[in-house]
Q: What sequence folds into this?
């Protein structure tokens, strides 16, 4: 075999305004680079306790079983599904985007009898239709996505939790994109199994999946007749490592957990309410700027996520060329559409550290330039001016 | 909920001489802290290509399907098993330690009809007994551990690969602890599915699991009748993200992959042969030193792993107190026994960056002090002197 040794990592400093990962704070990067210790080192065990305390604060829960799964957000999804589902169990999955679709795939692989409730991309579900489906199907678990990263739609959850519980089912929720950018009230709303990822509004590099399970969910896990399909994700063992017995399960990703620790510290220093307001404020300014450039959201007013802005590609504009120019000329990453809206939408993230006025204004200026270069006629500077006006006159 | 924000990460600089994680090179820590880019950023795609090239060099393979699974070594085990096993498939697992036992558990959860071949802790398997079992059971897959981290036993593989292939089965091998510390010749020996972890002889923080699949293994995956039980680990999708189509699957752990990139660069800069020699040399010196202190290996001569030295706890010595003193007074982490030898063995790692003469000598000096403190009578300084003599007179 012949090979040459490549050059060392020298990654460019991007402005990450896509659907994730988001920009990482220098304090998080510095934490990642602290010396590795063993996974049973008393120092690391203390860090695990602190992570659990901070994750509970961010999830707004007192759930004992709250921890970081050693994989990315999609593994968090799999962790929630495989712990709750036994082969043959019925699961109702609400699908209005790529991630609802993924959940239904994961559930089928876990052996669930999956029924789906479907809505078009960009729409959300009402409590009544879910209540009806729960009465009809008697599922053990209902799965739904809080913030559909593929569409930018914001799913209300509180009433849905009520109707799911009325049907004696468990509510499993994808909060990958919402956690730490918009309210996620696990106890207040009554969510039973919730997963997230670190690389969205937590602004930590991808690699860990925060999860939390309610007491009802834990009881369902403890009542299982069959072993959990995944050894790695088996919460009946993982919880012992995170719990008092500290029984070795797998070697935790030490440095990734350091990074999450610092990211959570940043979230709590800012405070959840301030953080949510900041995400809203920057979203409103971006929206005003986009509107001034004649760009429309692909999600109805009132359902738009503050951290993930999905808009239609303007007529006559080449989506791929636009995104390449933004990346190459301005260092700005945004996302394209997924699934049926591939090539038709742009996804502009304002997540965590990336949700700043500076990013909003720079992005609008760069976008204007790219659109002009593709021949669109625009009222020059209108986007930046409208966003700025929103900042001055807004909340 | 009330909580206080904990202090920032300030992890101590340990000397990691346990069963992993091992010490991390400062260059790897620095790479971890480079700015995060997107998982479809052209820069990251180039890093993925380079990672594949370097992983192939370290695995000594030209296998196309060679990549890093986004989880720790145990998830690499699960990735190999769930891709090769369909429900009802027969798998033969060779169990002579904790990790063989884990593999058999993972296989059963994946729906395999599992048969085990068992040997006592510290022993290894001969090709003849495996040939006999393969003829008798006709398994689709035979699983075996190359370097049993729980016992320190070194399993020869080449003849076993021959008898497994003679029985038309696939050979699945755990190289978590051996890779980059001792020869792992995937193509030369004919291994079909191999997984490792980053935190052993690659000396990278835990969080990724290098895997490689032979053409025969890929054909078996492509012939499956049923979907792979894990969406996250489904190589028929993961390979597209690592391959030419770059189809989005899950968000890769960007910064962890930066760390692995630098760790692999360090391995290849040193060269595999030099690296293996270094591991052998430090192992021989440690062994000479331990012998001079009257400490015996729990594995027979000739089967002892160079990177994981498992020895009996000397009579009258309190294992937990000894390890605590090593950690607290000297910053040295070593491991205790697992499974049936819990409390009876010590596991001393000399992995990757931690395999140095300085660590060997310091450890022997510290160990001597701890043993004296527990009342053992020793020939003072004999351990360090014997190790030193080995370095001067050895290879």
A:
């Amino acid at each position: 075999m012949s090979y040459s040794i490549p050059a060392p990592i020298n990654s460019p400093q991007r402005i990450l305004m896509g659907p994730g990962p988001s920009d990482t704070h220098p304090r998080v990067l510095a934490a990642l680079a602290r010396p590795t210790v063993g996974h049973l080192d008393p120092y690391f065990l203390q860090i695990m306790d602190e992570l659990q305390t901070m994750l509970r604060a961010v999830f707004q829960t007192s759930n004992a079983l709250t921890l970081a799964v050693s994989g990315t957000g999609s593994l968090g999804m799999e962790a929630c599904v495989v712990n709750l589902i036994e082969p043959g169990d019925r699961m109702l999955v609400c699908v209005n985007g790529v991630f609802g679709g993924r959940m239904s795939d994961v559930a089928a692989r876990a052996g669930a009898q999956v029924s789906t409730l479907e809505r078009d991309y960009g729409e959300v579900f009402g409590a009544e239709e879910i209540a009806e489906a729960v009465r009809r199907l008697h599922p053990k678990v209902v799965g739904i996505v809080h913030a559909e990263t593929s569409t930018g739609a914001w799913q209300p959850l509180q009433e849905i939790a009520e109707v799911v519980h009325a049907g004696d089912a468990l509510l499993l929720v994808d909060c990958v994109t919402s956690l730490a950018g918009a309210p996620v009230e696990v106890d207040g709303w009554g969510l039973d199994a919730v997963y997230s990822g670190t690389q969205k509004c937590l602004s930590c590099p991808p690699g860990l999946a925060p999860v939390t399970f309610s007491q009802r969910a834990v009881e369902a896990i403890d009542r299982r007749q069959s072993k959990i399909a995944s050894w790695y994700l088996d919460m009946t063992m993982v919880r012992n490592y995170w719990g008092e017995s500290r029984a070795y399960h797998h070697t935790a990703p030490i440095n990734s957990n350091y990074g999450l620790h610092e990211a959570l510290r940043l979230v709590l220093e800012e405070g959840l309410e301030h953080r949510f307001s900041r995400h809203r404020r920057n979203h409103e300014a971006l929206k005003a700027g986009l509107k001034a450039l004649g760009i429309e959201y692909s999600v109805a007013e009132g359902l738009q996520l503050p951290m993930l802005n999905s808009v239609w590609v303007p007529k006559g504009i080449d989506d791929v060329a636009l995104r390449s120019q933004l990346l190459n000329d301005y260092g700005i990453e945004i996302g394209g559409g997924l699934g049926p809206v591939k090539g038709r939408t742009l996804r502009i993230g304002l997540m965590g550290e990336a949700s700043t006025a500076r990013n909003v204004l720079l992005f609008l200026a760069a976008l204007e330039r790219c659109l002009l270069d593709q021949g669109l006629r625009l009222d020059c500077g209108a986007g930046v001016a409208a966003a700025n006006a929103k900042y001055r006159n807004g909340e």
Q: What stands out?
A: Chain B touches chain A through 83 residues (CB under 8 Å).
